Amino acid sequence: HLAGITLWAAEANDDGVLAMARASDRALRIAARRIVLALGAHERAHMVPGWTLPGVMTTGAAQTLLRAYQTLPGARVLVAGNGPLNVQVAAEITRAGGTVVALAEQAPAPWTRPALAAQLLAAGPGLALAGLAGLARLRSSGVPLLFGHVVLACHGTDRLEGVTLGRIGGDGRIVARTDLAVDALCIGAGFQPQAEVARALGVAYAPGPLGWRAVRDDDGRAALAQGRLAGLAAARDCGHQAPDDAAARAALKAQRRFQSALWALFAPLPLAEDITTPETIVCRCESVTRGRVEALIAGGACDVGSIKRACRLGMGRCQGRYCAPWLAERLAGEPTLFAPRPPFKPMRVADIAALADPP
User: Which of 34, 127, 250, 319 to pair with 116, CA 20 to 30 A apart?
Assistant: First the structure.
């Protein structure tokens, strides 16, 4: 068991997989016949005018501030975006003594979708009731629950001072706008899997309703039951006796029913208009605006590689984790992401050089 490891490169060969990693005190070269990847995910950015102002953060970042450092994200906090994590974090901020100005959710209220709510309750009663209890606590604490709302803009000079919310109508257009004075915006717009290593090893990825996902079978999905099945499959591939786990398959089936109902219930209302402007930054690492990308597309650049080379979008420290999905959605005719290139994480040259020659 190796702890504190950073995986920065991997390649497939005839014998299996060769991975390069860094520990706290040494560089590592690991050869394996099979590899089970569980790389986690990162939150998707919600790109609107002003989203790069200090005081705007992802919901997960706010949760880290609370849990790891016992620090509130601000004095007047708006929690917004899409998904159940926002409900949980808003409740945590309230319990910690913070002021949540509102919870703005892009999906309709769950009680307006009774059939989906019933499916969720049947698939996972404990988790469903915990979610409803979180909403009830927020309401009893006086937090406005604004379903069917989306953040349209963030305002401020040197830091966040206010946010404009829009209420989404039945046709996807904004039918009303509200300005709120806040000094912190915690916004979660869903999750994107950490795909660099998997894609470098040849795993196929495809766009879906919840973002880009690996194309995989039941033996190679994430979560506890799925991870157990993946480990058993890898053991069988290596010639070991590893019987199938019926309990894990049953748990996997139940988890899928719950997740299917959850994301159907939290399906965001679609927007019929672009809430960004030509001046909106879409690649914060390299300060590339939407207008710059649109000008390149109008000039004939029609693939992610050409646009990346022309304006450096995706070449910053995050390596396109936020801007690449946005660009792929803009290029509807070419649904692809940037080619994965190691190192997948920032590395010292000395660590890379230590593995330059085979042992």
Answer: 250
Which of 27-41, 96-110, 306-320 comes out lowest in average pLDDT?
Answer: 27-41
Phi, psi for residue 355 in degrees, rounded to 5: -110, 15
Contact present, 264 and 130 (Cβ < 8 Å): no
**What contacts 68, CB < 8 A, 6 or more positions away?**
none
Strand arrangement, sheet containing 184-188:
56-58, 184-188, 76-81, 99-105, 145-147
Task: Give CA–CA dist 278/27, Å, rounded.
Answer: 44
Torsion of CA 292, 294, 299, 300, to 10 degrees: 120
Residue owning tokens 């660590």: 351
Burial (CB < 10 A; 0-12, 13-18, 19+), residue 213, is middle
What is the pairing mode between strands 76-81 and 99-105? parallel
Instruction: Report the half-sphere exposure of 120 (CA within 13 A, side-chain side).
Output: 21
Q: Which two tokens stand for residue 295?
A: 């000008």
Q: Residue 358 corresponds to which tokens in the numbers above? A: 């085979």
Number of Cβ atoms within 10 Å of the Cβ of 225 = 21
DSSP letter (8 states) at residue 11: E
Measure the CA–CA gap between 236 and 343, rounded to whole angstroms.
Answer: 31
Tokens of 231: 């480990």
For the stretch 250-297, pLDDT in tens is 777 777 788 788 888 888 999 998 999 999 999 999 999 999 999 999
Q: Which residue has the tokens 């010639």?
A: 239
| H-helix segments, the chain | 59-69, 84-95, 114-123, 125-140, 196-200, 224-237, 246-265, 290-298, 304-311, 323-330, 349-353
Per-residue pLDDT band at 192 (split at 50, 70, 90)? confident
Q: Dihedral sign for Cα 197, 188, 318, 278, please.
A: positive
